[in-house]
Design a protein that fits this description.
With about 400 residues, the chain is α/β, with parallel strands linked by helices. The chain has two domains: about 150 residues, 3-Layer(bba) Sandwich (FAD/NAD(P)-binding domain), CATH 3.50.50; about 220 residues, 2-Layer Sandwich (D-Amino Acid Oxidase, Chain A, domain 2). It is built from ten helices and 20 strands. Strands 4, 5, 6, 7, 14, 15, 16, 17 and 18 form a nine-stranded mixed beta sheet that branches. Helix 1 runs parallel beside helix 7 and helix 4 crosses helix 10.
């Protein structure tokens, strides 16, 4: 079967890998140049600990205060946009304990599946992802935050995750190379991390060597549809015949889906990161600074610091007002690492595709016989990539899926 995948991010590449292994002819089409999409500059986490969807009561509780502050971890840039309004209303409707309790088990299932698959894939590819199974520290300075993290730790144990609650002395013992200024933390041993650039380079080379054709700088303009089947993908560089279409277009998923008559609610959430070169003092474990929603990841001798969720539409502008609190938080939690405020050209930004209920869209189009959607993974794209790729392959081949997928259906 000739299968066309729109999107060469981590979701597109892992999907191509599983499909090509089954003998399908696979072509990937991407609007970018393959060097700087959202999969490259993120924190590199594989995080079963992130089993609570983005749409949660805690986010809404902080929401109004954060919305009004351009330096807050979660910021919605004020603008008149009907898609944003619809998304916001749906997000608010989903951010309740009942919906979270319903969705968390499904998110946990795909997180656990993906973690194991990603470890296997890294091993198969000679550890090209630089994947490490060191766990992740959730650190906090605020007592109220500590109570919330303790609740999450207890909930995590229901899913079989070990998540010991640590005091400040115990946290410091886990990070002997740096001074840690915290009230306490929770340690999720199940979490992993990798080097996103190495992962993307390794995956790109692997699927290319397998015979997958990747067409960069091709803008999808339209589709030829006959008898509820997409027959041609029309780009600014030409037309491409296809037997099956997979749309894994990241934050452009909503735009591409509309061309197919599929109305998805999706908002791009901008995040920033800065990668600091060889450090005399570095973390041993990845750490999330929970009060400030900042992620810190040791990548060999490098240190990547990132964060924020900024709903500002599709653009690549870098707002240094948003970057400063990230660096400030890192220095406050780890006072002797002395991170300098970067120049704007050293700051990476990427757009994370966010659904209004915090679950990805993984499923077949309700309007077509040969279209599968794979997107809306928000901040856990790498965490969910391998599981998504396998599930898409199983759906296309009409196999029994590894886990239940109804919660991820497109038309929910």
């Amino acid at each position: 079967m000739q299968i066309t995948i729109i999107g060469a991010g981590v979701i597109g590449l892992t999907t191509a890998y599983y499909l090509r292994k089954e003998g399908h002819e696979v072509t990937i089409i991407d609007r970018g140049n393959g060097t700087n999409n959202c999969s490259f500059g993120n924190a590199g986490y594989i995080s079963p600990s992130h089993f609570i969807p983005l749409a949660s009561p805690g986010i809404v509780a902080q929401g109004l205060k954060w919305m009004l502050s351009s330096t807050s971890p979660f910021y919605i840039k004020p603008r008149l946009n009907s898609s944003l309004v619809k998304w916001g209303l749906k997000f608010y409707a989903n951010a309740n304990e009942k919906t979270v309790a319903r969705n968390a088990p499904h998110l946990n299932n795909i997180l656990q599946l993906s973690r194991n698959l990603m470890i296997d894939l890294d091993r198969e590819l000679n550890h090209g992802f630089q994947l490490e199974t060191k766990g992740c520290l959730m650190l906090y300075k605020n007592e109220k935050t500590g109570h919330h993290e303790a609740e999450l730790a207890r909930e995590a144990k229901k899913y079989g995750m070990e998540a010991p609650i640590l005091n400040a002395t115990e946290v410091q013992a886990m990070e002997p190379e740096v001074k840690v200024d915290v009230l306490g933390g929770v340690y999720f041993a199940v979490d992993c991390h990798l080097h996103p650039v190495r992962m993307m380079e390794t995956l790109h080379k692997k699927v290319s060597d397998m015979g997958v054709k990747i067409l960069y700088q091709h803008e999808v303009q339209d589709f030829e549809i006959k008898n509820q089947k997409v027959t041609d993908v029309i780009t600014d560089k030409g037309r491409y015949l296809t037997d099956h279409l997979v749309v894994a277009a990241g934050s452009w998923l909503e735009i591409i889906s509309k061309k197919l008559g599929i109305n998805l609610l999706l908002q791009p959430g901008k995040g920033y990161s800065v990668t600091y070169g060889s450090r005399q003092k570095n973390l041993i474990h990845p750490a999330i600074l929970v009060d400030d929603r900042v992620a810190m990841t040791p990548m060999g001798s490098e240190l990547r610091v990132g964060g924020t969720m900024e709903l500002c539409g599709i653009n690549d502008d870098i707002n240094m007002t948003r970057v400063k609190p990230i660096i400030t938080a890192a220095n406050n939690y780890f006072p002797d690492i002395h991170l300098d405020m970067p120049q704007v050209e050293k700051v990476w930004s990427g757009l994370r595709p966010c659904s209004p209920d915090g679950l990805p869209y993984i499923g077949n189009s309700p309007h077509h016989q040969n279209v599968t959607i794979a997107g809306g993974h928000a901040m856990v794209g790498i965490s969910l990539a391998a599981g998504t790729g396998l599930l898409v392959k199983q759906m296309i081949q009409k196999e029994k899926t590894e886990i239940a997928v109804d919660a991820f259906r497109v038309e929910r």
